[in-house]
């Protein structure tokens, strides 16, 4: 009996240490970013364009380019992802042998390192299709990269609805369009949003796929065919290539993280609100 | 003189999943304007057989239904022009109530507009009539925009009944409709079923022998052999409960087995 | 169509990029509706992009080689490649032989050069950078034989790395280095073979490791690219060239 | 449009979208492979492995330094992150008091959401100088890259292990408790074996993530394409190599880079497949 | 002269989830060497009460148990020095069999070594004896290293029984142990329970009135009022089934309600 007890104690000790270590690391890193990012942070940072290679000024144009790239990415991902997610989740869609194949290839696509998407986007969108290094090229590249994640989470959130909904709808003679349009999608909305946020988060965090596709021009983009740098690339460039750029790199990192946290928070609020949100539609 | 055909007539129906039969050789006849109970132990294929009657297991991957099914004397294919229409006419209620996670109103409206088109007044009328027929109107009249999931279990099941009745079905399939409800709520539903049988044919799968005794006009008793279900005995409720012919029925109804 | 006309893109040498940016700004101010984007990546990128049509104009911080005659060079300014060390390093001058020996790892400690007792940290440029090629050419070094501690890309990264390492040594564009030192970077340019590494010595031709800064184009030059190049080669930009510590060409 | 026609169109668009999504993968793989092929034809696969150095300007394309660099950095990260991640999952699910549990879960999720470039920034500004000061200048090294990667993949490992543990029906733990098993015995003998495959999945995917990461590593690894001999040596990984040189590569050089991209992709896909396998077997009983 | 105390004696026990009582005021007495059935409609708190007896719902967040429980005349706290020991002595079997997803051998070994230490021979002996007592030994003797999940449902449930019996419990709690099994497998389990009652006290929650009639020595009948369960009537099985005192018991046992 004492043997069992000792084992229990040791295990608890090791596991607590792991837990506390991680909490410590989290505090250290996030604390570092908040601490350095906040020192000397002014609101002007968000409303001015970068100057002096980013050492001075703010990140207005970078924010704009980031937003545009995300929009392009969403415009492609959302419709294709949603439809594919429905196809994969619906047992009446006749996926048969096709669906597992698709699922398989999506899982695989999700595992492809992002730099390979960068290679692909550069060669295909920028070069072959003549879109050059531009926001459009970057957004499309990101879309392919994010698509599998969104599809899988859309599928999962639709699957998480009880099968009985689908059965009941069938038993009432409802068409699939009616079922998804009026019942399933509204009910799965929080899950779908979660998938979207997951995808957005990935896109926001991406650098490797973008350096050869959207480029890193710091100016305010005027069209989708302009090159533009995202927040992540701005951080990379400031940290790597700009002496004296660390401060603004930290500020940008702070903005990026706060943005990601905010999206996450909104998502959680949404999920928590979801029952009433769903049901009062 | 011609007899009116039974509401449902099946001949040698079998349902298999991935080639493995769940029930087989089911020949049964369910009259109109009656409650037809199907009883039997768990897993003997009662639900599988029931969903074959409105082709609901057609979309279950790997499920195959064989044999002949006639509704009111017409083969399934001729009876309704398409699946949607068939399911409007042959409605189904499940063990757990399945309200959609929307408002009560939307729960009623969606199927009605799907089948009868978008006509606000007619829709409202059908909705009210159906809710009244299940005795729910008084309870929810003033809060139709409340989420249906906030109703109690019994109310939810009555809502599901109303949702189906609004489509004016001729046959109502019920798969253990009260087993997830508390005794009071179950009592209300039983009463409703008794009222409904004047207008349509009801097929009631139940685990609860007492319930079958209380409600059924005919009883079909499923038992299992070689891993799949078959009809061990069927007939008027009185006969089956009081003077069953088969040994297995006798033992089952006496509570010795199952 | 319209959008295509109104846009010019320059990519390539990190040495030229800051200057090109300034020139572009002035040119844009004079030509409303035109947008000029400038990106770095190294001289080789400039040439590759120009060839592939990913950029209208490439930036190359050296003279074109014979095998690159498919490109047309447009001389923009002159610059040199200077040796830099940390500003706390007491060393003020170095000879070509010493540089060679350091980069061959024959000399490993600053003590050998009269400096502090610290292992030398070798900062080296990535391939595809003209600054590297000019450096290798000048010292007749074979790149595969060099095993540096850090490999950097843009000039600025080289400056940053040396500034962060008191025992570091590197080589960068003199113009870029001078601007960085003005801005307070913790590095200094040291004499090479007794000659000051500065804009002045580049200008008077005495600095040994000097080079050209070129804009390059491939094939037919579109109207708006040609007029931009003409502007960049005119005396109107002399002040900008000097402002970046480069040397205007003899016009 | 009639209801039935609309429904038919809907079903059709489901299929088309799915087809498009599936083709994306085929296309990416095909394209990268296609661009990599000439490199193989020119040099043969052997040359990439036997050629000792990577000097595109001199026409030598030895991938060995980068292959070893990638492996060294990722394995170091995995060795650090795997036990910690598993510990984190156990802590969250079975040891943390309720107050701490939510906080901990949130922290791990947030750590998972922090972009890799931010970890890179932290590594460059905080970690590298620390290593330079206390171990060896300039600090950019396998160690720095491995540590940054470890922190990066730690949440992945933790989340997957946690999900694997969470996927075990609560009845299992209940049954174990009902037999009077102590907590650690229940975890060690019942839950961890049951979650084993899910944990393996997390391990494979974490490794894949570490192998595929580019920028955070590029920022702190030193990027010297050489065969490393100690943890404090600088290395260049396959992915960093692509990022550093893709912009200007042409001809054989470009094909060689595509080949290394293809290589990374192939290895990650292998890992992902292994991960998928272990997941599927898990689902069977 | 002193009577032997009952195996289980509860006084005014209530179980609440998040402050909402599921059952309350349960005072019951279950003799040793008997099968004590608990019957009643779904949701009336039978399971909640049962797990209070071996403190298993202690780990359910938000669950609170009040009242007194005595086992063999000793308060729960004094009866067993710690939770692990209590659960060894008061074993529990669930509705769905819960074999660990490991080999049959490991399923048996893990609890045995936990309680009796690592002694290969003794462990093997206990394992064999327990498997024999549930009649599984012959069936699995040669494939002890097969995953337990590959056994049939009935075999799994017998394995769970064996796993618990190997620890020599004095009380066996059974929560609808046959309801997920086919009739044959259920019959085997029932036989086993009948044998076991010579050695220990069994508490059997069941939905199946016929089963209770077949097995029970005492019956405790739960019913619901104000949203929580209470004991409507209890006593020897004969009395309850044949001459129930309360109206609600009479109606329930006659099949009129529930
Ligand atoms: N979707 C399915 N896929 C595979 N097998 C199925 C499926 N649905 C049912 N079965 C099998 O068919 C058999 C009969 O199941 P069915 O649900 O019809 O029985 P039942 O009589 O309704 O049982 P219960 O009383 O428990 O509801 C069972 O062995 C079951 O495993
Ligand atoms: N973990 C829990 N958290 C909250 N409420 C619970 C929990 N477990 C049970 N309950 C509630 O306690 C009440 C009694 O549940 P319990 O499972 O004990 O009933 P039961 O008599 O065993 O029913 P059944 O016959 O369906 O198994 C129910 O209202 C249920 O919702
Ligand atoms: Mg059923
Ligand atoms: Mg229960
Ligand atoms: O960036 P470079 O000027 O060295 O090519």
From TrEMBL, chain A:
InterPro entries: MetI-like (IPR000515), MetI-like_sf (IPR035906), Phosphate_PstA (IPR005672). GO terms for biological process: phosphate ion transmembrane transport. The lineage of its organism: Bacteria, Pseudomonadati, Pseudomonadota, Alphaproteobacteria, Hyphomicrobiales. This is Phosphate transport system permease protein PstA. It comes from the Bacteria. GO terms for molecular function: phosphate transmembrane transporter activity. It is a multi-pass membrane protein. It is found in: Cell inner membrane; Cell membrane. It holds the Pfam family BPD_transp_1. GO terms for cellular component: plasma membrane. Residues 63-267 form the ABC transmembrane type-1 domain. Belongs to the binding-protein-dependent transport system permease family. CysTW subfamily. Keywords: Cell membrane, Membrane, Transmembrane, Transmembrane helix, Transport. Its main location: membrane. Coiled coil: none annotated. The chain crosses the membrane at residues 12-35, 62-88, 109-127, 133-151, 183-205, 249-271. Gene3D superfamilies: MetI-like. The keyword Cytoplasm does not apply.
UniProtKB/TrEMBL annotation, chains B, E:
GO terms for biological process: phosphate ion transmembrane transport. GO terms for molecular function: ATP binding; ATP hydrolysis activity; phosphate transmembrane transporter activity. PROSITE patterns: ABC_TRANSPORTER_1, ABC_TRANSPORTER_2. Residues 8-253 form the ABC transporter domain. Gene3D superfamilies: P-loop containing nucleotide triphosphate hydrolases (3.40.50.300). Keywords: ATP-binding, Nucleotide-binding, Phosphate transport, Transport. It holds the Pfam family ABC_tran. InterPro entries: AAA+_ATPase (IPR003593), ABC_transporter-like_ATP-bd (IPR003439), ABC_transporter-like_CS (IPR017871), P-loop_NTPase (IPR027417), PstB-like (IPR005670). One of its GO terms (cellular component) is membrane. Belongs to the ABC transporter superfamily. This is Phosphate ABC transporter ATP-binding protein, PhoT family.
Automatic annotation (TrEMBL), chain D:
GO terms for molecular function: phosphate transmembrane transporter activity. GO terms for cellular component: plasma membrane. PROSITE patterns: ABC_TM1. Gene3D superfamilies: MetI-like. SUPFAM superfamilies: MetI-like. It is found in: Cell inner membrane; Cell membrane. The chain crosses the membrane at residues 66-90, 110-132, 144-168, 189-211, 256-276. Coiled coil: none annotated. GO terms for biological process: phosphate ion transport. Signal peptide: none annotated. Its main location: membrane. Residues 67-275 form the ABC transmembrane type-1 domain. Part of the binding-protein-dependent transport system for phosphate; probably responsible for the translocation of the substrate across the membrane. This is Phosphate transport system permease protein.
